[in-house]
Amino acid sequence: MSYRLANIEGRAALVLGEYYYDLETVSNGAITSDPMAALSFTSDLSKIYSGLADLAPTGKLADAVLGAPVPNPSSVFTVGLNYRKTALDSKTPIPEVPMIVAKFPSCIVGPDCNLDMRSDYSDFEAELVVAIGQGGKNISVDDAWNHVAGLCVGQDFSDRAVQFSSTPPQFDLGKSFDTFGPIGPVLVSPDALEDRNSLALECEINGEIRQKDNTDDLIFDVPTLVSYLSQLVTLKTGDLIFTGTPAGIGAAEGRFLRDGDVITTTIEGLGSIVNKCVRGIDHPHAAFVPEIFKSKISAAKK
Question: Could you write out the DSSP letters of every residue in 89-120?
């Protein structure tokens, strides 16, 4: 059975249609209000969800303040160059193993949080995000979906000035600023989707489509990523995997985010997240212009 799990002002809730149901209430206290704890009860969530229509809702989703459905992950992994067409179009060799970069868990925020930019070189990356339910080690590809609590929409924001201010480039810190990991709007169990392996993905900035693809073009699909990571580290309940982004990011065209930009990221069956760019105070490397982007920035201004 399927479910849609939300974080409503810090409390776990199930979502059915336009309404939400406080999880601690509808489970008669069997499951606490902690959104992280709920990820350990996926079978119970499905059973409770199947009977929600007979229960009184807690409120309307439109009136709720949504937090990150997985607010405190232990680990957050991102995958680079994971869309086949993107690699072919850029004439980059198809990677033989997943390219894994970490995000610090402190960057995770809710679906409608503002992006706190600290330089003029902040970039966007629309991504399908996987949340681990039952953790494990050495998980097989065939068993991997059984370890997935749900899927959601994510943005893997990056500060390119920080990433390229050192030689060789260092990517983790530039992906991990506060607010650089919005996810949501809710966590959807894979069996709630018509085809969990083929989801249309789109990113708009101020109404202009900048990224558009489908997750069926992933080089390393969800089961492969879960299995691969589990061979190297023990995956824990609530760990997140940002599965990669398709073509169209700002760095490729020299078109970086600006104060006031509104980014809308949508994935089929999962919903949308909306993030507004707010230019904050400069970080120590804000004046650094990465050499590899100079010609692209000049071309974009013409």
Answer: HTTPPPPSS-EEEEE-GGGEE-TTPPEEE-SS
